[in-house]
Amino acid sequence: MSTATMTAPATATATKAKPRVFSGIQPSGALHLGNYLGAIKRWVAEQDQNDNSFCIVDLHAITVPQDAAALHEATRELAAVFFASGLDPDRVSVFVQSHVSAHAELAWILNCFTPMGWLERMTQFKDKAAREGTERASTGLFAYPALMAADILLYDTDLVPVGDDQKQHIELTRDVAERMNTRYGKDLFVLPRPHISTTGARIMSLAEPTRKMSKSEPEGSLELLAPTDVNRRKIMRAVTDSGREIRFDESRPGLFNLLEMYQLLSGQAREEIEQEFAGKGYGDLKKALAERVIETLRPIQERYNELRANPDHLEALIRRGADRIAPRAQATLKRVQTAVGLG
Ligand code: AMP
Ligand code: TRP
User: Fold this and answer.
1) What residue ranges carry the coiled-coil annotation (predicted)?
2) Catalytic residue check, 212
């Protein structure tokens, strides 16, 4: 059958030219080199291979208290970082979750098919609710995974690139989808798979190298938009050990992390790097790494500043992402509404 003569079937199993990849990222906290090396850089490299959508999940952000102006600002900041890092608005849909109303609409339906027991078992909810106390934690925080399931299922997503911590949410997405497929027919939802990267998946904190570099721990984090001297200082002060020899040795987590960043940024093989630093000290490695980090971030920061200097253009780019993707979301929503008997 020629694809040219085929009309797209109104089911989830419609033939797709490329795997559909969807990921969401919260507009909260400053993006860091871990986000770049573990996620964004790969998204950029794979933008032709897959049919990619990256969603700035502002509806998820409001599951915990937010300052309104800061949230609005963080949403634009994140969009600008994505484009500045090389995501091409012509090939990838970068959009804001609240600009496509189908997310909230499908989330409501999924809420009605998600047992409370499943949500109660989510470790992210348990952790966050423990911090806030269940009296104060919002219902939105509890239902967070159903909204995430809606994000993913709306686009008949095949692959969801996420960190380890989100695997449980993808499993819940599959469980809800299977439950509804069993009841309404297997073509209702595509079952997505998590895509957890192995190399470069874990950049560690410079201050505490046994913990992941994270938005919530700025001391150990190399922020993508930080001034050059701030990042240089953090690298020069990075926690290492009292050893001397520069080797990829996992039992020396601080050194290993510096070397791993150097490897990812330089594209060199491990042996080559060990040779380069043979007989040299940690200070030399740190200086060389700082240069690599600064070189990588300089063009990103330049493009970022250009994008932020023209807010109308940035706004047009994210609206374009939403306009491109909204018809797909609408088609899935309609399919589900019809199956369930709404409308
Ligand atoms: P988060 O900052 O937790 O919202 O994560 C956003 C994306 O960046 C996810 O795809 C994570 O897997 C990735 N990521 C976050 N922190 C790191 C890290 N320290 N090393 C590698 N990837 C990370
Ligand atoms: N919960 C994810 C996180 O905190 C963000 C997210 C929301 C997401 N919707 C998504 C990730 C859909 C992947 C797919 O990192």
Assistant:
1) none
2) yes
Q: How far is the CA of 312 from the centre of ligand 1 (A)?
A: 29
Which of 26, 28, 35 for mutating ligand 1's site (highest number of atoms within 8 Å of CB)? 35
Residues 272 and 138 in one domain: no
Q: Which residue range forms the structural domain that includes residue 73?
A: 20-201+311-340
Alpha helices in the chain (DSSP H): 33-35, 41-45, 58-61, 68-84, 102-111, 116-120, 123-132, 139-153, 167-184, 228-236, 253-266, 270-276, 282-308, 311-340
Ligand 1 centre to CA of 86 (Å) is: 18
Q: Would residue 5 count as lying in a domain? A: no
The answer on 264 and 241 residing in a single domain is yes
Ligand 2 neighbour 162 (Cβ under 6 A): yes
> Within a 10 A sphere around the Cβ of 124, how many other Cβ atoms?
15
pLDDT value, residue 28? 87
* Cβ–ligand 1 contact at 163 (below 6 Å): yes
- 186 and 329 in a common domain: yes
Contacts of 144 (CB under 8 A, 6+ apart): 60, 63, 122, 124, 125
- Does residue 280 have an active-site annotation? no
Ligand 2 in reach of 24 Cβ (< 6 A): yes
Confidence of residue 148 (pLDDT cuts 50, 70, 90): very high
> How many domains is the chain partitioned into structurally?
2
Confidence tier at 17 by pLDDT (50, 70, 90): confident
Domain for residue 194, yes or no?
Answer: yes
- Domain contains 218: no
Please tell me if the CB atom of residue 60 comes closer than 6 angstroms to any atom of ligand 2: yes
Q: Ligand 2: distance of its center to the CA of 24 in Å?
A: 4
Global pTM exceeds 0.70: yes
**16, 126, 128, 186: the active-site residue:** 128
Neighbours of 210 (CB within 10 A): 10
pLDDT tens digits for range 254-292: 999 999 999 999 999 999 999 999 999 999 999 999 999
* Judgement on whether residues 298 and 234 belong to the same structural domain of the protein: yes
